Automatic annotation (TrEMBL):
Protein's name according to its UniProt entry: Adenylosuccinate lyase
Pathway stated in the Swiss-Prot or TrEMBL entry: Purine metabolism; AMP biosynthesis via de novo pathway; AMP from IMP: step 2/2; Purine metabolism; IMP biosynthesis via de novo pathway; 5-amino-1-(5-phospho-D-ribosyl)imidazole-4-carboxamide from 5-amino-1-(5-phospho-D-ribosyl)imidazole-4-carboxylate: step 2/2
Residue span, Adenylosuccinate lyase PurB C-terminal domain: 332-452
Biological role stated in the UniProt entry: Catalyzes two reactions in de novo purine nucleotide biosynthesis. Catalyzes the breakdown of 5-aminoimidazole- (N-succinylocarboxamide) ribotide (SAICAR or 2-[5-amino-1-(5-phospho-beta-D-ribosyl)imidazole-4-carboxamido]succinate) to 5-aminoimidazole-4-carboxamide ribotide (AICAR or 5-amino-1-(5-phospho-beta-D-ribosyl)imidazole-4-carboxamide) and fumarate, and of adenylosuccinate (ADS or N(6)-(1,2-dicarboxyethyl)-AMP) to adenosine monophosphate (AMP) and fumarate.
Keyword Ribonucleoprotein: no
Gene Ontology annotations of biological process type: IMP biosynthetic process
Annotated signal peptide: none
Recorded superkingdom: Bacteria
Swiss-Prot/TrEMBL keywords: Lyase, Purine biosynthesis
E.C. no: 4.3.2.2
Molecular function, one GO term: N6-(1,2-dicarboxyethyl)AMP AMP-lyase (fumarate-forming) activity
UniProt domain Fumarate lyase N-terminal: residue ranges: 81-311
Length: 460
């Protein structure tokens, strides 16, 4: 039943509504229009490739004519979007509608003589495999990777800025050997850069071998042509890898590999979001107020860590979609089924949630300030973390013959486990140790704030 207060048509997804500004660049590639523009490109470039080889007694097209043809996808816009929507309403087949569009434009250009080379010997999946490879590759390289790079760059910047900011570590949530905030942020940059390199080196594969991957129709039309080589050179000329052995579809394994790696990045980013959220909650970071912004609808003092919470949620949504894509796309019944068709239409949604998370993380990392005094105060209340250093020095002294203490670990456990020990108590304890004077002086000079090992150098 229609609601009496039905709205005008509204976007169902928040990516196309509330969050549109943050994800809009992906629409140039991973939208329906972006896919159709790529399909037109694939059809046009195949036609040019066939005539360049003078197949079926054709001649290579003049340069100006090629440019006119390439204008069909370079100038693809609202007129073509509307034309395809109207045609698909009749054909009930999206790729066939694209073929008709190209034929229509060929006729307008006076190129009816080569119209039958449009979609020549192609199954829809030849066009789709190339089109998806092109659109995903361009979306990743032109939109998603730059957004990831912006987050990595911010982490590197903060890592260097806070390289010397000693902080209490909290392994298992408990006070532990100090580190520096810069080193901890550098860990995330280091992890992300490693997986980013894998993504940057991804394969983007396409097939172009006909209805069941056998070039059967091609050979029927010209048995003397080297169709696998023609197809390979065509696909590789578009900047893609060529998959020579397939069924009707390209097997999607490259997509599974890519989406699993993007999901891996999302997991690291999720870890970053929850850690920064926790650091904010214990006062290590303060949030920089944004003029006019409301932190809480009822508590005026609050600045909620919304950037990191939003990123966390969107990374979870992205991970779920990417996981579903990987699980579905890896399988196709016999030589073809259509489960991948509707699945692949959600590639943009999966990347959209990831891109939104990246945008929030980049913004969030720029809206926090390190409270160094809180870090130092926390360290000063946890002198017991030096127990590790003391028992390790004692062990070294025993080996060197300068101590006869029998169980250094047990000695320090009795002193520190389950209760707080201050600077004075530790100093008195160290003074009474049977160890060499040089080792004793090193321990007496040590504080929780200076017990950070190589953390600063690692961050730098």
């Amino acid at each position: 039943m229609t609601s009496p207060n039905a709205f005008p048509v509204q976007p169902l997804s928040p990516l196309d509504g509330r969050y549109r500004p943050a994800v809009a660049p992906l629409g140039d590639y991973l939208s329906e229009a972006g896919l159709n523009r790529a399909r037109v490109e694939v059809e046009v470039e195949w036609l040019i490739a066939l005539t360049d080889r003078s197949l079926f007694e054709t001649s290579p097209l003049p340069g100006d004519v090629k440019e006119q043809l390439r204008g069909l996808y370079r100038d693809f816009g609202q007129a073509e979007i509307d034309w395809l929507a109207e045609k698909e309403a009749v054909t009930r087949h999206d790729v066939k509608a694209v073929e008709y569009l190209v034929r229509d434009r060929l006729s307008a250009l006076g190129l009816d003589a080569i119209a039958e080379l449009t979609h020549f010997a192609c199954t829809s999946e030849d066009i789709n495999s190339v089109s998806y490879a092109l659109t995903v590759k361009r979306a990743v390289e032109n939109v998603w990777l730059p957004a990831l790079d912006a987050v990595i760059a911010k982490l590197r910047e903060l890592g260097v800025e806070h390289a010397d900011a000693a902080m209490l570590s909290r392994t298992h949530g408990q006070p532990a050997t100090p580190s520096t905030m810069g080193k901890e942020l550098a860990v995330f940059a280091w992890r992300l850069e490693r997986v980013r390199a894998q993504i940057a080196a991804s394969d983007y594969l396409a097939k172009f071998s006909g209805a069941t991957g056998t070039w059967s129709a091609h050979l029927s039309a010209d048995p003397d042509a080297d169709w696998p080589t023609i197809a390979r050179e065509y696909v590789e000329g578009l900047g893609l890898g060529f998959n020579v052995l397939t069924t009707q579809i390209e097997s999607h394994d490259w997509q599974v590999e890519l989406y699993d790696r993007v999901r891996h990045v999302g997991g690291i980013l999720h870890n970053l979001a929850t850690d920064i959220w926790t650091y904010i909650s214990i006062g290590y970071f303060t949030q920089i107020p944004v003029a006019g912004a409301t932190g809480s609808s009822t508590m005026p003092h609050k600045i909620n860590p919304i950037r990191f919470e939003n990123a966390e949620a969107n990374l979870e949504l992205s991970a779920a979609l990417l996981g579903s894509l990987s699980q579905t796309l890896v399988t196709s019944r016999m030589q073809r089924d259509l489960t991948d068709s509707t699945t692949q239409r959600n590639i943009g949604v999966a990347f959209g949630h990831s891109l939104l998370a990246l945008d929030n993380l980049r913004r969030g990392l720029g809206e926090i300030s390190l409270a160094r005094e809180v870090l130092l105060d926390d360290l000063d209340h946890n002198w017991e973390v030096l127990a590790e250093a003391i028992q390790t020095v004692i062990r070294a002294e025993v080996v060197a013959g300068r101590s006869t203490i029998s169980d250094p670990y047990a000695l320090l456990k009795e002193l520190t486990r389950g209760h707080r020990v201050g600077a004075a108590e530790l100093a008195e304890f160290v003074e009474g140790l049977e160890i060499g004077d040089a080792a004793k002086q090193r321990l007496l000079a040590l504080t929780p704030a200076t017990y950070t090992g190589l953390a600063e150098r690692l961050a730098q």
